[in-house]
Amino acid sequence: MNQAVLAKRSSNEPIESYKHNLISGEGYENLVQSVARHPLKQFQKIGIHNAMCMLGTYQGCFIADDMGLGKTIEAIVLSECMRVQNLLIVVEAKTLIQWQAQYYKWTGKLLTTIKTKKDAAMLSSTLTPFVICSYDMLDAVTKANQKWDMVIYDEIQKLRSRNSKMSLAARDIRDSSARWVVGLTGTLQWGYVRDLWNPIRVTFRYLFGTADEFDFTYCGAFINEHGGKDNKGYKSSDGIDRSEELAIRLSYVSVRRTRVDVKAELPAFTRNVIRIPCTQKATIALHAFLRKELPYMNAIMSTSSEKTEPVLELLETLTNAIIFTWTNADVALLTALIMKSGRAVYSINKGVSKSERVAIIQRAATEKATIVATIDSIGVGVDGLQHVSSNVIFHSLSHSPKLHLQAESRAFRMGQTNPVVITYFVMQDSADELVISILEAKSSQDGASATESDKIAFTGLKMDDAAMRQVLADWVKNATDEIEQGNSNSEGWSDNDDSED
After folding, report:
1. Residue that terminates a domain, selected from 222, 255, 288
2. Is 33 exposed, middle or buried (0-12, 13-18, 19+ CB in 10 A)?
């Protein structure tokens, strides 16, 4: 195994000793800003410079900043700083247009889009130095045998499968034609430690070993009685793998900043929780869920009707807002009531097409109108909510705490110039508390793992049934794991909007 990184520190040293500071020399700020067509934040300049240092040493790097901190911008400006003459950008199909727009905005250059196998076949015979394609076209692009100074993979966790066609194509590009590789992701924790090997292999070749060496080193692999290899440590929570050690060593080759790290350069952020009295209906629904007699979403939707009036009362004190709820029926009701009051309002749900969603957001931003949307409708390829409002209101909650954090980040991201206020309406001692307690604990820990005592705070539930307490404990654990594992399933969400206009 190549020990260039792995041998730098022993696993017994404290985590703090691994924190690197690659900023050295003079003039890096001027260099980075000179190639960008718009002003950059200081932390972005530092991130780009650090990435340049990593590319110089390891020929690859991960950019794993929190959602909304500008990974797209950093990768684009990085390619300019490295004076790339042949660039390939690989993204999810739904984000092609956003990447093309951002690339032109920050470089003044146009990307050639590979949409078909015929387009890919012509790469070797035409002058196409700056190319973008979807993951689905990666295999076809590989066969063109084009040389690339740099390959950028957005949402590189798409390559977590070791033997898929596009993963094999990405490895082939790395070995045969790519000088530098940059992988973008919202987190390096995807739940399964084994899932990290292929993105690492695509980015750094064998810097962290072959697949077998990686499994034996970091995943608790062992030789069974039949002479074959077994893995026990699939998940970090299993306690068998060496995921913490791996994360430390990955810090040498990753640009990773959280909102807490760069909060001085971001707008102020406040999360408010307004609790309303519990109804008998909501209490019965929660206990039915805990007895496994009712789906969770039915329990949480039992709280919605009582929160409509308080949401409208809060909206009256604001210029406008982004209101998230869960069902299409709630979207329709809130939209009708807001419209009746004479305010400008638009609605979005999953039935609204992508192009319509983009148009609605642009109109709402221009008119300073309110948007009412389902929590699961503002996902991949839908940009610009940070230009609509800095006030976010959650009416009916989702079953997934992670969805709320991602929805929050649609307003609290690059391009937002006003203090962001997130308001949750929560019914006391109802299913709402299951979600909000996770979010509050996560916030109070400033991104660290919440303790068990922080996760459960339901003083009014009076749960004497051991089976009910176990259901609650299991729910809390699964919800917390979902947040801490990050984008284990990124199909519905992508950090592709870094607009600052």
Report:
1. 255
2. middle
Beta strands in 135-227 (DSSP E): 148-153, 178-184, 221-223
* Residues of the chain scoring pLDDT < 70: 1-28, 124-128, 189-191, 232-241, 379-382, 441-465, 469, 472, 474-501
Residues in CB range of 454: below 8 A, 6 or more apart: 437, 440, 441, 444, 445
Cβ neighbours around 162 below 10 Å, total? 14
Domain membership of residue 77 (yes or no) is yes
**CA-CA distances (angstroms) from residue 7 to 2, 217, 252, 397?**
9, 13, 12, 47
Number of domains in the chain: 2
What is residue 6's predicted lDDT score, i.e. its pLDDT?
Answer: 38
Domain shared by 248 and 105, yes or no? yes
Residue-range definition of the domain harbouring residue 304: 267-485
The DSSP bridge partners found for residue 271 are: 422
Return the sign of the alpha-carbon dihedral for residues 321, 325, 328, 334. negative
Longest distance between any two alpha carbons in the chain, whole Å: 74
State whether 470 and 348 are in the same domain.
yes
Alpha helices, H only, 268-398: 280-290, 296-301, 304-315, 328-340, 354-367
Cα–Cα distance, 146 to 152 (Å, whole number)? 15
Q: What's residue 126's pLDDT?
A: 61
Residue 215 amino acid letter: D
Tell me the pTM.
0.74
- How far apart are the two ends of the chain, measured CA to CA in Å? 46
> Could you tell me if 370 and 420 lie in one domain?
yes
User: Is 407 domain-assigned?
Assistant: yes
